[in-house]
Amino acid sequence: MKKMILGLCMMVVLAMGLGGCATQKDLEVVQAREKAIAAKADQAAQDAENARMAADEAIAKANTAIERAEGAEQRAIERERIAAEKERMAEEKAKKADEMFKKSMKK
Predict the structure, then answer these.
(1) Domain count, the chain
(2) How far is CA 93 from CA 26, 48, 87, in A?
(3) 55 lies in a domain?
(4) Is residue 100 a part of any domain in this protein?
(5) For 8-53, how does the pLDDT look when each residue is reduced to its tens digit (9 = 90+)?
(6) Torsions phi, psi of 21, nearest 5?
(7) What is the pTM of this model?
(8) How far is Cα 50 from Cα 94, in angstroms, rounded to an integer?
(9) How many whole angstroms separate alpha carbon 94 and alpha carbon 92?
């Protein structure tokens, strides 16, 4: 009985030893998979960097457009102020001319 149990134990140990070891082919497959994953990770990192650079460029363009729009707005406000001032001056001149006309008509 002891011999049978000992033989059975040896077979189990031998089976575990043979089944638990990786072959060279298994190792190569794992290494190839690791290289593929590393390549995908590198590509993803490069894509992310390119996207970040494109976003930075878009932000710079947007900021430039904002600056131009703000400048245009300031120029428009200034033109509007000047036009209002000219209109006020024209109204004053018209009022003075009307007063002078009325004065001359009274004489």
Answers:
(1) 1
(2) 99, 67, 10
(3) yes
(4) yes
(5) 666 766 666 555 566 788 889 999 999 999 999 999 999 999 999 9
(6) -85, 140
(7) 0.53
(8) 65
(9) 5
Where in the sequence is the domain holding 83, given as residue range(s)? 23-106
Q: Which residues contact 101 (CB under 8 A, 6 or more apart)?
A: none
Q: State the DSSP code for 23.
A: P
Tokens 């134990």 sit on residue: 9
**Alpha carbon distance 6, 4 (integer Å):** 5
Residue 16 falls inside a structural domain: no
Element (H, E) at 34: helix 24-106
d(CA 40, CA 53): 20
Residue 91 in any domain: the answer is yes
Q: How far apart are the first and last CA of the chain?
A: 151
Question: What tokens appear for 31 in the block?
Answer: 């290494």
